[in-house]
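Q: Protein A?
A:
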Amino acid sequence: MSKRFNVWLLILAAIMASRFIGMALFPFADTTEPRYAEIARLMAETGDWITPWFEPGVPFWGKPPLSFWAQAAAIKVFGVSEFSLRFPSWLATLAMVWLVWRLARQLWSVQVAQWSSLVFATMALTYISAGAVMTDAFLALGTTLTLASFCLVMMGEGGRWRWLFFIGLVIGLLSKGPLALVLVGIPIVLWLLLSWREAVNNLRRLPWLRGTLMTAVLVCPWYILAELKTPGFLDYFIIGEHIRRFLDPGWAGDLYGSAHDQPKGMIWMFWLWASFPWGIVALLSLALAWFRGKRHGIVSSTLLSPGVSFLLVSALAPMLFFTLAGNTLWTYILPSLPFTAILIGRWVSECKPFWLSSLRGGLVAFVPVLLTGFVCVAVLGWTPLKTEKELVTYYQQIREADDSPLIYLDDLPFSARFYSGGTALEVTRNGLDNFPHVGAFEHLYVAVPKKWSGEKVADLLPSARKVMENKRYQLLVIDGFRRDQQSVSETKGVRSNDI
């Protein structure tokens, strides 16, 4: 093993290992991570591996279960923690880093492969999603495996890659659904149009009939069982999530949140954020080369090289598909980044611009250092986070056997659900008046918005005292709750009689 290879491997290992800091120390902040983490926790707790549950009694029809399976399995192995729930995404990202390395090495050289993997691992969205409880890393793994396998088979590779093409489809269909077929279909069709003569004979190398049958056997049983167990799943997931959400920017049918209404074409701006800092640097360099009169070289190297043209259409596919959609998030860019990284990695490895040669080491370190620093600052409490971990932990430490569950007035954050193990309650103001009928408690613990004034708190809970607060909420406690509630009820009765 060469010295250069050793250095590259050590740097890559340090980058991937640095993500462990955030995975272990950074709390789940509302809303995405704790929402998916709670779904996985419920799956592990109930043992229901068919239907993910949004909360007890409410099925989660928004996503297939592959990511939840992985996260629930991690809970079974490592216990409930931020690290265990984030670890499956880290493994999925590590697999994508290897696929990037393997494809770039096949297309060009080991040096290009090394830089491509470094570029991919240090893009902003890659680094963040590697340690986040989301479904996107599994979708991107599926699409990357399918497209990388397709490219390798078209270049003459055989054996396992012929079947990994279909395994990638299985991963995509079980992590995000039919969207995976679209994201791999667009680049394959576009590339065939560009390179029809070279590719038409190579298509026979893939076992289309047996591979499709294998995909159906591995995917369809879960979809059938999910519909049988909770009727209505297929209509909501296939029609609602994949058609109505795409066509209607303000889709009101979302059962689990709100639509992410964005201006059409915003997906291209998301690409700049997701690929930061490499995408911006590459575009600036490309624009500079274009204005220097190298247009012909850029166009010919892209369109005349089958490998480069396939990478380009694979990198552009998510943006092309979501350009006219208003319901978008920046995480939708992740399937584009492995192929973007190989294109940039080839350019970086050649180091034709002198300024890039001196900057590329700093670009590799930029995102890992920046985000690791942010994690450290947040853990030290210098940056308030939208998480209920501290408040829930405080409540768990001081509560006694005869005390009430933790109550959030009107709105229960997902992070409170997760960190309380599903015991925190959401109660309305009217429900709070009737809460004594549920049981008798020595102390009542209620979290109300931090912005509430003392007068507003006193009007609702006259004898409440504040014991702590975080960025969004203040935790109130009523001592001798039964006596206090009785006096409040009597007072309200007197006032109503007076009226």
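Q: Protein B?
A:
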Amino acid sequence: MSLSERIIASNKGMLAEMVQLKYQAMTESAFRFFRGTCEIFYQDLSLWKAMPKSPLSWICGDLHVENFGSYKADDGQVYFDLNDFDEALLAPVAFELVRMLTSIFLCFDFLELEDLKAMNMANVFLKNYSAVLARGKALAIEPRIAKGIICTFLMAVSKRKQSRLLDKRTEVRKRKLVLSLEDERHFELDKDLRKDLVEHLTDWINNHSRSPYNYKVRDVVFRLAGTGSVGTKRYMFLLENLLKKGKYLIVDMKQSQPSALTPYVKVSQPQWETEAERVVFAQELSQHMPCSLLSHTVFKGDAFVVKEMQPAEDKIKFRLIQDQYRDIFQVIDDMAALTASAHIRSSGRKGSAIADELIEFGRSTAWQEKLIDYAFKYAQKVKKDFKVFKTGVDSGIYANS
């Protein structure tokens, strides 16, 4: 199959009009293209017969430098951690590591930093990942123990007020606070669908153990966010507290699709009632503390992950620190520690390797050079594929897909 046929096939079943927006977003850079083609990455990786053996773990599946960020957990604390588990699956940890390493090379290329710095950073990532894994003790990063740029970042986001999020996402219309339709990422819903969604989330609020108490649904819109997930059904709700006037919550409800890794991982998986159950299981297992209101539901036959949207939710903007090599070093070092910690937390659960196997893998170095070499070469392939893809978009190949 040609590259265009593979990309179109990987987006089948998605919302057609939103997929077109995804394709446009992917023309921004090779790094953005890489983030939007997770399935293509694993198709290619499955052809690598010399991949070093590695222990099984619950991996996030789409690990890259943009899939770490801050969030407020159920305990009220703000953490920096892995934050996207749509593709999560039981798989060899090497799958996770190769994708992350490739993202480092592509991110540095996007930031116009030389290959030598990228290679050094890839080595930094694997060195600290292995060191944390070898110790067998999971770590957490929150404001009191964070260092450098991550500490500054977490201190800043932890001080943000709910009003900041409301100002960005809402407007007053007919003397009522509603979700803004001026935001290009928000889309108005069909009247009947809107009614059904309000009824569904109202039922979730009234009956789910993880839902907020004493809240009522005031508005809902379709929400566009991310890159790889563009094309899935995603809704954003405005909830108002019935007891405290002027207190609101914003809730995200995102459709869960089968993991892009599924055809390429030859490992028996647990039987889940829904794909959303898989996502929530992996996220609760991997993060130090789960994000606020994290749960799953089924709406009109489709599975969805539900969580609170928060002012403390943000990502490190590498473009703003591209000239601060020490800060980038600290961020990548922390991302390595968090990746290893996620794997340690999931050890011995539903088929994953026990901690002793992970520790032994962390103490070995024989596999590291092979993963870095593959990731570097694959990043060059992604850049070539990106040029072919961009030409195809410009010529209209993807217009009717």
